[in-house]
Specification:
Blueprint (H helix, E strand, L loop, with lengths): L2 H4 L16 H9 L1 H15 L3 E7 L9 H16 L6 E8 L5 H18 L8 E7 L12 E7 L27 H25 E12 L13 H15 L5 H5 L10 H11 L2 E12 L7 H4 L3 H24 L4 H18 L3 E11 L2
Parallel strand pairs: 1-2, 1-4, 2-3, 4-5
Antiparallel strand pairs: 5-7, 6-7
Length: 366
């Protein structure tokens, strides 16, 4: 699978779009706000730059895309007033793969700037320059020493490719307790290569003292075979395997498909940062969110498992449909997610189902 060509969140504003199915990601952004605030505040107080260059990597599309940009500008504007310092120019780079719905983002920019003028600053906020950067962040995307702050949320658990050597992961679509050891090792090694390259590229693009805050899905155990970090994918595989048994999907199609998805442990992340050597880790935080966080107000939906299953299935569809269509064809999509919805509703009614997240805040030191 050519990730740069195939992979993207569902575009537009329809029922299955990422824009309408990203409540979980918004909740994650909100929870990490204090860490981002500390990172941008410490940088700004230390450097007082005349211009501030920020990159949001894996920005996707929809209401979350400019959420962090707005927040960071708001924080810096408040600091500028407190420090009696002239507001900086803001240079914002929004990065995602080329298939991302950048057009939808660009259409929203004027409303975004109007909101900034009305709620954040009366003067000078027009000096905010926003650019789309369609490219994989597993490579250089910006000039050397051009950035002050890098942010990425809910993106780095996606690998640059399906690992070579994962071909015998029969009946699975990612690492599970039934995955052979060679498949587990292939995923581990692919993550190590990808994350190391990500760090190397960001180290070249950030100036000394620049900050980076990243949040991604992780796992709580060092043992890949017993952790539930991929449980939600196991249930999607269950729906696909049902369709294999019914002859809707060919068995060889199922057995040749894997998602380029990996959830590292916190110790794996620390080790790769230490090995790469360009960053000092300032803060690491681990938190869990119920799958119901994808559904909106948990209290209203606690007793509506069918609706919960639908909402979580829509969340997963918004992020995976492009890859499933590329491999299985479009005809099966409604069927598989209808089945998936009911499987999810059943498990969510009987089990404590959680997402496990890891946030890292670091400083470029060399």
């Amino acid at each position: 699978m050519d990730m740069a060509r195939v992979f993207h969140m569902n575009a537009g504003t329809g029922e299955t779009s990422y824009a309408n199915n990203s409540l979980l990601q918004k909740k994650v952004l909100s929870l990490v706000k204090p860490i981002r605030e500390e990172a941008i505040s410490s940088f700004y107080r230390e450097k007082l730059p005349r211009s501030l260059a920020i990159a949001d990597l894996g920005c996707s599309c929809g209401p979350n895309t400019l959420f962090v940009t707005y927040e960071l500008i708001e924080i810096v504007e408040m600091l500028s007033r407190d420090l009696n310092h002239e507001s900086p120019e803001y240079i914002i780079f929004l990065n995602d793969l080329p298939g991302n719905d950048f057009n939808n983002i660009f259409k929203s920019l004027e409303c975004f700037k109007q909101k900034l003028r009305g709620q954040v600053a009366d003067d000078g906020i027009d000096q905010c320059y926003i650019t789309g950067v369609p490219s994989s962040f597993y490579g250089r995307i910006l000039p050397a020493c051009s950035l002050h702050f890098v942010h990425s949320s809910s993106s780095l658990h996606w690998l640059s490719q399906v690992p070579e050597g994962a071909e015998n992961n029969k009946g699975n679509i990612c690492i599970t307790k039934t995955s052979p050891l060679n498949v587990q090792n292939a995923y581990c090694h692919q993550f190590q290569r990808d994350f190391s390259l990500f760090l190397k590229c960001r180290a070249e693009e950030l100036g000394e003292g620049g900050r980076m805050v990243i949040t991604l899905l992780g796992r709580s155990s060092e043992d890949l075979s017993c952790d539930k970090s991929c449980y939600i994918w196991e249930l999607l595989a269950k729906a696909l395997n049902e369709m294999v048994l019914e002859g809707i999907i060919e068995e060889n199609q199922m057995n040749s498909f894997n998602f380029p998805f990996y959830t590292p442990s916190s110790s794996e992340l620390k080790l790769e940062i230490e090995k790469e050597g360009s960053f000092t880790l300032n803060h690491l935080e681990i938190f869990e969110l119920s799958w119901k966080a994808a559904c909106g107000d948990d209290e209203e939906l606690n007793n509506n498992n069918n609706n919960d299953g639908y909402k979580v299935a829509q969340l997963m569809r918004a992020g995976t449909e492009s890859m499933l269509v590329n491999h299985f064809g479009e005809a099966i999509i409604d069927n598989v997610f209808h089945r998936y919805q009911h499987i999810l509703a059943d498990r969510m009614s009987k089990e404590k189902t959680m997402f496990f997240y890891i946030t890292l805040s670091s400083t470029k030191t060399t």
